[in-house]
Design brief:
30% of the residues lie in helices and 44% in strands. The protein is of the alpha+beta class and 57 residues long. A three-stranded antiparallel sheet has the order 1-3-2, covered by helices on one side. It starts with a strand and ends with a strand.
């Protein structure tokens, strides 16, 4: 049985900082044995960039 985990990452400054944060989190989870299922980017109500990362193990 697969277990899924969704991680929400946001950054109020720049897309570049958000991308670096996402990349660091991806590297950590993959190193811990998780598989990347989906990555999506969006804006929240205050127009702040948000990334949702879905992993499974």
């Amino acid at each position: 049985m697969k277990k899924y985990r969704v991680v929400k990452v946001s950054c109020m400054w720049t897309n570049e900082k958000l991308s670096r944060k996402v990349e660091n989190i991806l590297n950590e989870y993959v190193k811990d044995g998780f598989e990347i299922v989906k990555i999506s980017f969006s804006h929240n109500i205050w127009r702040r960039e948000v990334a949702y990362l879905t992993f499974c193990r």
